[in-house]
Each structure stands twice: as C-alpha cells, then as structure tokens.
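Explain my protein.
***
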Amino acid sequence: MTVYLHEYGKILHLSSVVADSLLYALGAFVAVQLFYYLFFFTRLAFYGKGANYGNAMPGVTVLVCAWNERENLTELIPLLDAQEYPEYEVILLDDRSDDGSEEYIRENINGWKNIRYIRINDQFNHVTPKKYALTVGMKQAKYPIALMTDADCRPASNHWITAMTSRVTEDKDIVLGFSPYFKQKGLLNWFIRCETFYAAVQYLSFTLAGMTYMGVGRNILYKRSVFFANKGFYTHKHVFGGDDDIFLNEVATSSNTTISIEEDSFVYSVPKINWKDWFRQKRRHISVSRYYKPRNKVLLGMLSAAHIGTWLLGLVTLAWGLIVKDMLLLQYLGIVFGVRWVIQWFLLITINVKLDKTVEWFSFLLMDFALFVYYLVFGFLTMTSRKPRKSWN
C-alpha cells in the first residue's frame, strides 16, 4: 500500500507540474498578445477621425499601374475622373498590356477631363515592371503629391483624393489609407476580409505608435520629394513586390507618416475568387517581409508567434485537462481565454466600426482561430519558401 501511495503521489505531482508549466507558458503568450492589443491597437481603437477638409489642397497626381486590366479600367477610370478635387491628374501607366487596354483608353481619353495615358513598352532585367512603371509615373507627374491605387480598386466616394490629402501637413509626408475587399459569398472571401482587416489593424496601429513598417499600394499617398530624396526603389528595384511596404520601411519615420480612416478615404478592392490565386498572392506579399528592418521583423514575429503559441498551448492544455480530469486546470484555461477574448473583442469591434465593419463581429472568434492556422501555415512556408513567381497577379 505504501508503494502504491508513493507512486500515486508521484503521478499527482507530475500532473501538477505539467499543469503549472502549461499555464505559465500559456500565460506568457497571452501576456505578449495583450501587450500588443493594449499598447498598440488601443491607439487605433480610440483614434479620432475628424480630418480637416478645409486644409490647403495641393495638386495631386494619381498613379495607376495596369497590366491587362481592361475590364477593371472601364470601371475605375470614370470614378477617378469624377473626383471632386480642385487640381489633380490621373496617370494611367499601361505596362505592355495586350488585352485591348490601349485601344480602349485611346478611344475614350478625349472624353475624360483629368486622365493622362503613358504606354510602357520596355522591360529591363535590373528593375521589376511595376517599380519601373511607377518610377516613370513619378518623373512624369505634374504635381507634388503622389497618390497610388491599383486597377482592380474602386474609391468609396468622389472625395477620396480630398480625404487622403487632408492629412498632409508640412511635417506629414506620407498618408496610409485603408483598402478593404468587396464582400462576397464564400469562405475564401470571408477569410480574405478577415486577414486584410487584421493586417490593417496592425500597420495602422503601428504607424500611430511611430513605428510604420508598411502600407498597401492600393491606397497610399506620399510627397514626390520623399520618393526622389530616397532614390525611389533603387535599393530594392530587383525585388518583385515591395513598392509599398519595403519602400515605407526605408522612408517612414516616427514623425513623417500618418493615417486616414475617413469613410471617404477608403478604396475597395476586387478579391481573388479561388484559393490558388490567393495563395500565390499571399506568398508573394509575405516573401518581401525578409527585407524589413530588424525591429519590424522582431515586433511582427513576436505578435504572430504569440498568436500561434496561445492557441497551441491552449489546445494542449485543454487536451491534458480532459485526459487527467483536472477541472481546476480547465477553469484556469477558461479564465485566461475569457479575459483575452473580452479585451480582443472590445478593441476589434471598436476598430471594425471605424473600418466600415469589414468583418462580421460575431465571427471574431472563428477569425482568431483561422488566423492561428494562417500564421502556422505561412510561417512554415516562409522558412522553406522558394522564390515567388514573378507576375503581376
């Protein structure tokens, strides 16, 4: 009996040690996540909109790069040409399109008030096509402010240029906008909207904290003087992608960048409609993160690692608690995740309202788990990735 009790005591002690270890590790991961939520994301949650549309309105050049985007251009160009702004131009940079884009534009350009057309027929090995096209546009632009979007995007209103430019001041050279995807049916569209929303929460919040690391080329503004003072895309001209995030990693400072989250400043995008195209697009986007500054890599890596660790430790703790029937452990697990979700839901719902309710609030829990799987899969692929396919899409 004494031996039996001794062995039973060892089992209880081991179970207690395992339970304590799991809770301490889980608590550490959750603490890291909550630090990001409370230190960074609260800045966006309580950020006041209130852009002053009465500010001085400098001339703006809108740059749109397009490769075989005829169908999208037929919808986008009228929206850009109808912008209510005193002095602006739109430069369409057609990169070797062979889908009838050139014919469509040349046939209709005389009927548009603010549209200029530049056909690009050259391609060079030392620079990627889009960066070359944007550089040409920067050099040809008439105005001091450059505002970028893509052919598959749609401004939310005729005051898009006004809303973005209203944030420009003598000290603020760069303005980051928000570009959600159109809401459609299906799991892929839901997840695209979730991932885009959460990415925006991060880069907009980090910018408000003076730690800008990226923006999205679908909706970004900066003074042309910033572009030329930093030699444009010179240091990464050979890297496919990064015309928005790598460039910002180099030129953004703690004081020269701000955000615009007015409803008028939103630019909606057409999402991918099949998993293969989306997967290829995300691999390309993620592949450029290797060029980020070390500080950005560490901050983003810790956030995604904490997300993965929280769910992995949570699931392991749940399984262990059920196996050994440790109800106290399961109660602690419920408390930890409960506190996390309350804080998470409050801040994300508040931000979601500001960002046009991009994601249905009742799906935040499912989004949280889906992002865990996303980080797990793409984290592994990033470590074992080959060079991404070099295409516009």
Summary: The first strand starts at residue 60 and ends at 66. The first helix runs from residue 2 to 45. Residues 1-13 have pLDDT under 50 and may be disordered.
